[in-house]
User: What shape does this take?
Amino acid sequence: MTGDRDRSFGFADPQDVPIPYLQRIRTYYQALGYGAPYEWAHYAEVPFQPLRQPLSRSRVALITTAAPYQPGKGDQGPGLPHPYNGAAKFYAVYSGAVAQDHDLRIAHVAIDRQHTSGEDQASYVPLAALRQVAASGRIGELAPRFHGMPTNRSHRTTLETDLPEIVARCRADGADAAVLVPNCPVCHQSLSLAARALEAGGIATVLMGCAKDIVEYVGVPRFLFSDFPLGNAAGRPKDPASQAFTLDLALSLLEAAPGPRTTMQSPLRWREDPAWKLDYCNIERLTPEEIRQRRAEFDAVKVTAKALRAAEQPSP
Assistant: This one.
């Protein structure tokens, strides 16, 4: 009777809720044998910087966690499926001219590889959409550079090295506001911390993301949540109308949020069947052999990351 009543009332599937990334990731890595769970950044107080002037006169910066394509560094996508590629990671803030096109990819981060192909850069880097809204007068102008934020798991590195650099570059570009677009779970933490630092530095921000619990746990001023697989925070792939709508929601939130911790959820759905939400880092869906394989793959990734970090250290 309960099922019949649910259908007659028009209730949604009980699984059709935002993915609990914090709980899933904690259980997943403990099952892989990594012991104590990762401690995510968490704040009670959230800075908030209102726009200092109308958005139509504001200079807006874009901050991404996507990485420039690096020939010779192996498979970096796109395509479904394509493997995680730790060799394509970057460990320092980088910048690029917004007037140029860039080949930016997300094979270096833990996106949803079962449901995300990475074939449409516009679904995770809204640079083209921002150019269009600048041309239309919706925003005053784009800052001359976009900035790439590393996805460091180290809070110290993020807080003491990466964030001051991001703030300094946005200030140097004369940014009044910033749009931040993360991809993987740690990306969501990194850019949430970046949003906080920018707001404390006088630059209004809006974060467009897909990991609701992580962003709200860190605590940000303005958050546009899209209930999509990780890697699609700027809209559905190959759907320009979805991408334009998603960016417009983010800009509206940038203008109208009444105070910190303002979350808006996009009404767009990935698909009617919410079963895709049961796959990401769900240990209950893996066999013992698959768990052993995932452990071996993650150990190999850590070796690659350690070698890359060592190679990037300056010579004494």
